[in-house]
Design brief:
Strand order of the largest sheet of chain A: 5-4-6-8-1-9-15-14-10-11
Shape of chain A: globular
Helix content of chain B: 25-40%
CATH class of the largest domain in chain A: Alpha Beta
Number of helices of chain A: 13
CATH architecture of the largest domain in chain B: 3-Layer(aba) Sandwich
Helix content of chain A: 25-40%
Largest sheet of chain B: 11 strands, mixed
Radius of gyration of chain A: 20 Å
Structural class of chain A: alpha/beta
CATH superfamily of the largest domain in chain A: Thiolase/Chalcone synthase
Shape of chain B: globular
CATH architecture of the largest domain in chain A: 3-Layer(aba) Sandwich
Distance between the termini of chain B: 27 Å
CATH superfamily of the largest domain in chain B: Thiolase/Chalcone synthase
Structural class of chain B: alpha/beta
Number of domains of chain A: 2
Oligomer: heterodimer
Distance between the termini of chain A: 21 Å
Order of helices and strands of chain A: EHEEHHEHHHEHEHEEHEHEHEHHEEEE
CATH topology of the largest domain in chain B: Peroxisomal Thiolase, Chain A, domain 1
Radius of gyration of chain B: 20 Å
CATH class of the largest domain in chain B: Alpha Beta
Number of strands of chain B: 15
Chain lengths: 410, 421
């Protein structure tokens, strides 16, 4: 018999709040978490915008034990996982009886922790560094720290696939359940804003500039000029459907199909780039047993990138054909920034909330779609939408693409 | 326990979607390429020498297991070797060697379902080390424009895919010293569930100042030699390299009449959820990983003929791994040959368990087991058959590969003679 995958819990720490409810509300109001950043070492850089967490205080989420061994990445992951476990009633007592697996998606890992550790050794000598800091320099440190904090003794994995890492982790977790490897998996992603990622992206010229046009990145806008980095963490509790029902958990939605594909041209050949994303979406639909006609809205990967946004529009046009003109599409990175590993979980959270509250956020700030774009269902304003099935896209900078289909139960 | 039932179901599924190893490529401190590597490994060669990647004068230790005589342009044709990091160079080379070894030509129609999974500890550490060198002196403008397309660890898998033209799932699994096993496990799941037909799975890491600094600070690096399970063992020795296994469904391999080295029979993963750097004092997680692996393979402890130990050479690891092996294998523990090839290769980090997986597969295919070198005075607390000093000819039907990582991460993978099942 086919094993179905239910979403039974959700936890997130985003630039626009720590619940899917507050995130949807903020996006529908057109609020943005992307703001000017002040870092003393950044003189001379054009872009000074980022979607940072306003005053994240780990002690508001994590109690009873010293926080000192956890770096900020781990704190974010632990906090979001705690919220997810709480929302699905996986209490400490329940966790003691089951070996819960954890899959953490991340693009940069603890790059700032790693850099700090290295720089301390350069300036003060290798004998001066902290052994406790070294433990956090492994890229999957957040996965290990979260397992220790929440007593998760099942398989402990990490997924790195650029900015699609978070959706990939969820896709991998769904596969573990479908294949009978686990009854429950905690999965999601985490990434933090850091001076390293900011300098790196800035030097690569992919970030938006806060020049004449706008104070924020505007996905799919004709005059967009790049993305803004975001940060945060988002985790889902996935369970085998009958298992979830048997223990009386409330099912928020079902993960239908997931597919990933790789663009060997890494975005340098538009035709291959579009074809790759088309393949990911079509395979995800096939694996869901759905046609493009069954999809009620799209949570796009679009983040304001000059090239990737264009590819995604063309791919949506191809996949949705005669529906392209009316298909509702949202792109939440106008409000959160490109939160990398956390982006996918944010998109899923907003999609769940859209289905529940029948409101689809708009792409705030959007004035004009690129010339020739038929996707008139992309709008600057929120709208009322009765939806059941959604497709969530991820398009990375280095060729990684993926699509995930979720469906509500009724 | 729910996971037991789940594993049984998975085991049943595996029989219809069997996964086999048909190609292997290695880049190590003792040699490059499957045949040369195996010859050097069986004769007990060591890749450990003075560190040359960076100045170790400020460190109390100076030894490492670096790859020498490696010319990236020999293996990297499509990408520009100078534009990718050293770990990517290793990964691309090992992956290409694995494809060659499997005698596989990648057709365009198949490329879309052909994926690659790479395990790693540090990704491209030299890229961030270079960043840090400029950053500490305030020269941000000298930071490479390509920093962000070279550093994040997903580029390891992406570079392999770009070089070989692969369009399937392309992902890096950064679970440190257990990462090679994790990559094999991930590819195995994709293949056995029918999501893909061919996958490259392996691990890669380059010698890293950051890693060396950390292990030196923990006092975990041995001053001269790596001598796992020896009474006088003084620690591990950092290394580098890469290994890839070409995995296919058995049907796919048969259809193209491929040579089959061995089958991936099952696996077990677990987490101690105890401490970031110290193993669980009763080895609970390691025991559970081995037990789940054997159950998922449908095998009892008595059927295991060879174990590749994690065997880092640190006092604690080797003692606790012995405890775990005894708990899982009971009386059989003293009958099964167990070796740590880290005695020769040092600890190649994320590549280690991928290289050790190659050793397991070759033990099955060649009918011999590699030695644990430098094991002169066995530790009474490590009183199992660790194949001291010299390798042996011996029939191996089933081999178990153990790897453990920071974060209490435990992984065990079972390989088996394909005909034997």
């Amino acid at each position: 018999m086919d094993r179905r995958v239910a979403i039974t819990g959700m936890g997130l720490i985003s630039p626009l709040g720590d619940s899917s409810d507050s995130l949807l509300e903020a996006l529908c109001q057109g609020r943005s978490g992307v703001r000017p950043v002040e870092l003393s070492c950044l003189n001379g850089y054009q872009c000074h915008l980022a979607g940072r967490l306003p005053g994240f205080r780990p002690e508001s989420y994590l109690f009873g034990r010293p926080l000192r061994p956890l770096d900020r990445m781990s704190q974010l992951a632990c906090a979001a996982c705690g919220l997810a476990l709480e929302s699905s009633w996986w209490t400490a007592e329940n966790r003691a009886l089951h070996d819960l697996p954890l899959v953490v998606g991340t693009m940069f890992g603890g790059m700032h922790t790693i850099g700090d550790f290295d720089r301390a050794a350069i300036t003060s000598g290798p004998a001066s560094v902290s052994p406790m800091a070294f433990a956090n320099t492994v890229i999957h440190a957040a996965a290990g720290q979260t397992a220790i904090w929440h007593n998760l003794r099942g398989a402990n994995s990490a997924v790195a696939a650029g900015s699609i890492s978070g959706i990939s982790a969820v896709g991998q977790a769904a596969a573990m359940i479908r294949q009978g490897r686990a009854e429950i998996v905690l999965a999601g992603g985490v990434d933090e804003f850091s001076v390293e990622s900011f300098c790196g992206c800035s030097r690569a010229g992919v970030l938006c500039t806060n020049g004449a046009h706008s104070e924020r990145p505007i996905p799919f806008d004709r005059y967009r000029n790049g993305f803004a980095l975001g940060e945060g963490a988002g985790f889902l509790v996935l369970e085998e459907f009958t298992y979830a029902r048997r223990r009386g958990a409330s099912v928020l939605a079902e993960v239908q199909g997931y597919a990933t594909a790789f663009d060997c041209s890494q975005g340098n050949d538009p035709e291959i780039a579009v074809r790759t994303l088309v393949r990911a979406m079509r395979t995800a639909l096939t694996r869901s047993g759905m046609s493009y006609r069954d999809i009620d809205f799209v949570s796009a990967s679009g983040n304001g990138s000059l090239t990737r946004d264009c590819y995604e529009l063309a791919a949506l046009d191809t996949v949705f054909g005669d529906r392209a003109k009316e298909l509702p599409v949202t792109a939440i990175k106008c409000g959160t920034g490109e939160a990398m590993g956390a982006s996918g979980p944010f998109q899923i959270a907003v999609a769940l909330e859209t289905i529940k509250r029948r409101r689809l956020p708009g792409v705030t700030g959007l004035r004009e779609l690129p010339p020739g774009c038929r996707m008139q269902g992309i709008s600057a304003n929120p709208r009322t939408l009765q939806a059941r099935n959604a497709i969530i896209n991820g398009v990375g900078l280095d060729g990684n693409c993926c699509s995930l289909v979720i469906a509500s139960l009724d | 326990m729910p996971h037991r039932t789940a594993n049984r179901e998975a085991a049943n599924k595996t029989k219809s979607g069997r996964v086999v190893v048909t190609g292997m490529g290695v880049v190590t401190s003792i040699g490059i390429g499957r045949e040369f590597f195996w010859q050097r490994l069986m004769s007990g060669c060591s890749g450990i020498k003075e560190v040359s990647s960076f100045d170790t004068s400020k460190f109390p230790v100076h030894k490492g297991a670096e790859v020498s005589d490696f010319y990236p342009a020999d293996y990297i044709c499509k990408l520009c070797p100078d534009e990718i990091g050293r770990a990517s160079q290793f990964a691309v080379a090992a992956a290409r060697l694995a494809v060659l070894d499997a005698d596989l030509s990648i057709t365009e129609s198949e490329a879309d379902n052909f994926g690659v999974v790479v395990g790693t500890t540090s990704g491209e550490p030299r890229v961030i080390e270079h960043f840090d060198d400029h950053f500490v002196v305030g020269h941000i403008e000298r930071i490479n424009r390509n920093f962000v397309s070279r550093y994040p660890c997903h580029v390891l898998a992406a570079h392999v895919a770009c070089e070989l033209g692969l369009g399937g799932e392309v992902v890096t699994i950064p679970t440190a010293c257990a990462a090679g096993n994790h990559a094999i496990v991930h590819a195995f799941d994709e293949l056995s569930s029918g999501q893909a037909e061919i996958m490259l799975a392996g691990g890669a890491d380059s010698f890293s100042r950051i890693t060396y600094t950390g292990f030196a600070r923990l006092g975990a690096i041995a001053p001269e030699v790596c001598q796992p399970f020896d009474l006088k063992r003084k620690g591990m020795i950092p290394g580098e390299g890469s290994a890839f296994l070409l995995l296919e469904t058995l049907d796919h391999a048969r259809n193209r009449s491929a040579r089959v080295y061995a089958e991936v029979a099952g696996y077990g993963l677990s987490c101690d959820a105890h401490h970031m750097t110290a193993a669980h004092p009763q080895s609970q997680g390691a025991v559970r990983a081995m037990e789940i692996a054997l159950t998922s393979a449908g095998l009892g402890p008595g059927s295991v003929d060879y174990i590749s130990a994690h065997g880092t050479g640190t006092p604690t690891n080797d003692r606790l791994e012995t405890v775990a092996l005894k708990r899982v294998f009971g009386k059989h523990a003293s009958q099964v040959p167990i070796s740590s090839i880290k005695s020769m290769l040092g600890h190649a980090m994320g590549a280690a368990s991928a290289i050790e997986a190659v050793a397991c597969v070759l033990a099955i295919a060649q009918g011999c087991v590699p030695p644990t070198i430098n094991l002169v005075n066995p530790d009474p607390e490590c009183d199992l058959d660790f194949v001291p000093l010299t390798g042996r000819k011996q029939k191996v039907n089933v081999a178990l590969n153990n790897a453990y990582a920071f974060g209490g991460n435990n992984s065990s993978v079972v390989f088996a003679q394909c005909e034997a099942r």
